[in-house]
Amino acid sequence: MKKVKIGLIQMTCHKEKSLNLNKAINEIEVAASQGAQIICLQELFSSLYFCDTEDYDNFELAEPIPGPSTDALCKVSKKLGVVIIASLFEKRTQGIYHNTTAVIDADGSYQGKYRKMHIPDDPEFYEKFYFTPGDLGYKVFETKFAKVGILICWDQWYPEASRITALMGAEILFYPTAIGWASSQDEDTNLDQYNAWQIIQRSHAVANGIPVVSVNRVGFEQKGAMKFWGGSFVANGQGKILYHASHDMEETTSVELDLAEADSLRVHWPFFRDRRIDSYQPITRRFIDEG
Predict the structure, then answer these.
(1) Which helix (H) or strand (E) holds 203?
(2) pLDDT tens readout for residues 77-129
(3) Distances (CA, A) of 136 to 4, 25, 98, 139, 188
(4) Per-residue confidence (pLDDT) for residue 291, from 0 to 100
(5) What ranges do the domains of the chain cover?
(6) Phi/psi of residue 201, each to 5°?
(7) Catalytic choice (116, 139, 171, 221)
(8) 151 and 115 in contact (C-beta within 8 Å)?
(9) Average pLDDT score, the chain
(10) Among 45, 69, 181, 183, which one is least packed by beta carbons within 10 Å?
(11) Is 179 helix (H, G, I), strand (E, B) or coil?
(12) Which residue out of 43, 90, 127, 171 is catalytically annotated?
């Protein structure tokens, strides 16, 4: 058996970056006190979700990675002996910005970063205005406690991303997330959207035989047109829900995973063995038609 405890921090955010960073650090300490060894923060945790408007002033929120926020988190990581997964707005250079997650190992060392590959552009989610698509490819990070694969929010909808990350040796898939409901929607639509979001990620767990950890923000922000639906969850390699957060409360929790389960699952459900890799070339096309 290979047991590891995962920490999830589902929280509301403020306009002032320093308040969010301090709040996150406090909650990391709470998660660590619960025994969490790998702690994941939500997408863009250090600010409000600014992508609900196209505003050039918001580029001032970005920072280099490594940079001030990762420096602060490295100190916390070293003090507590925990791995931290931290999603930030990265300024790469003048005019090039990314939606990026940094990984900090349990000794406080910066391990590297993953840049979000799939960038949405929907009402209240104008991310293409801010973010250049990731160019580092899919990534797996060898931490003290596990090999972790990081994907970010909109990446959740793409089985190709989870499959590639799993094939690279990820033992757990983490999805820092910022997703919510339009305040004008009815409850049936809200439920359908949430269920689809959770089901697609649970399917990644099943298809790859490894746990999925999804950490979302919660509450109304800025204009109040979007309510982030929380609902952070952990699913094991059979898609079973091990933890499910509320839709309207801040929550910090830890969940134990047995990473050794992957071996048994992949023996009894040998999806990796039976993949027909010789037949998958068409997936690289935008659409399969005569053109």
Answers:
(1) helix 187-208
(2) 999 999 999 999 999 999 999 999 999 999 999 999 999 999 999 888 999 99
(3) 27, 27, 11, 8, 39
(4) 62
(5) 3-274
(6) -75, -40
(7) 116
(8) no
(9) 96
(10) 183
(11) coil
(12) 43
Annotation says 113 is catalytic: no
Q: Which tens digits make up the pLDDT trace of 227-278? A: 999 999 999 999 999 999 999 999 999 999 999 999 999 999 999 999 999 9
DSSP single-letter state for residue 273: T
**Which of 139, 153, 171, 227 is an active site residue?**
153
Residue 217 pLDDT > 80: yes
How many whole angstroms separate alpha carbon 167 and alpha carbon 189?
Answer: 35
d(CA 178, CA 57): 20
The topology (CATH level 3) of 3-274 is: Nitrilase/N-carbamoyl-D-aminoacid amidohydrolase (3.60.110)
Which amino acid belongs to residue 187? E
The string of pLDDT tens digits covering residues 111-123 is 999 999 999 998 8
The CA angle 142-150-266, to the nearest 5 degrees, is 75
Q: Shortest CA distance to 123 belongs to which of 21, 225, 209? A: 225
153 carries an active-site annotation? yes
| pTM, rounded to two decimals | 0.97
Distance CA 9, CA 73 (A): 14
Is 116 one of the annotated active-site residues of the chain? Answer: yes
Any idea which residue has 């305040």 for tokens?
183
Residue with tokens 């096309």: 285
